[in-house]
Amino acid sequence: MLKGKAAVVTGSTSGIGLAVATAFAKAGADVMLNGFGDAAAIEATRAKLAADTGVTVLYSAADMSKGAEIAAMIAEAHAAFGRLDILVNNAGIQFVSPVEDFPVEKWDAIIAINLSAAFHATRAAIPFMKAQKWGRIINTASAHALVASPFKSAYVAAKHGIAGFTKTVALEVATAGITVNAIAPGYVWTPLVEKQIPDTAKARGMTEEQVKREVILAAQPTKEFVTVEEIADLALYLASDSARSITGAVLSVDGGWTAA
Ligand code: NAD
What we know:
InterPro entries: 3-OHbutyrate_DH, NAD(P)-bd_dom_sf, Sc_DH/Rdtase_CS, SDR, SDR_fam. The protein is an alpha/beta fold.
């Protein structure tokens, strides 16, 4: 389905990004991975994905909190693949704290990685997509792009920002063959969710089990975590030609969370 296409997926050494990159590679796209982690483990992931799918899989260590590194990553992908068709702005971090105690450096990091990184990557990618008259930009938003939860001020602000950024850019490039959409997952079982459980437990004075049952899955009417594969399947559809008329959309995959 994506044979001959080239994609960059930020934050793809883990969780949702890795599932999206894997789905794209299986569909025939060359892929640039990005994200942090153990260098040997990342190289093993890269090599296995390339061997399993037969596409070219590259890796960029660009830090999504640094605009210049993001621009360089997009330029590097275009130079290596000779094209750039799909950009998935997915890297993200979380920090949970009452707003009056929220560490300033955590606020700055979340806004940089979860919001500004999408701006830096998008502005660098659009000229290549315009020249090809075809492009797909997919931003990983969140149910927290539509509704709030306490103690997540930076994350909720950044994700609401991503929804607005998605709609704005979609309008700007609507006649250029480029679509821009956001996927808004509910709780997906990934390291990002697992890591916030101890802090949420502390902030709410609960046990970790209570947090999972009474805080996390309480918000999700299905009472089940979304899987990374479900998000990857939607990203794959949005990247396809069939989805050419879907643009500026924030698509919920949240087990009914934001219907409530
Ligand atoms: P994850 O922790 O498994 O993956 C995050 C990825 O981002 C990793 O590859 C990590 O290395 C990378 N990353 C973090 N900081 C980076 C930086 N400065 N530069 C480059 N890469 C960086 O988490 P995930 O749950 O897969 O999250 C992926 C996206 O999905 C995030 O934007 C997150 O906000 C969003 N999301 C997750 C959930 C969920 O329940 N897991 C729900 C809604 C939205």
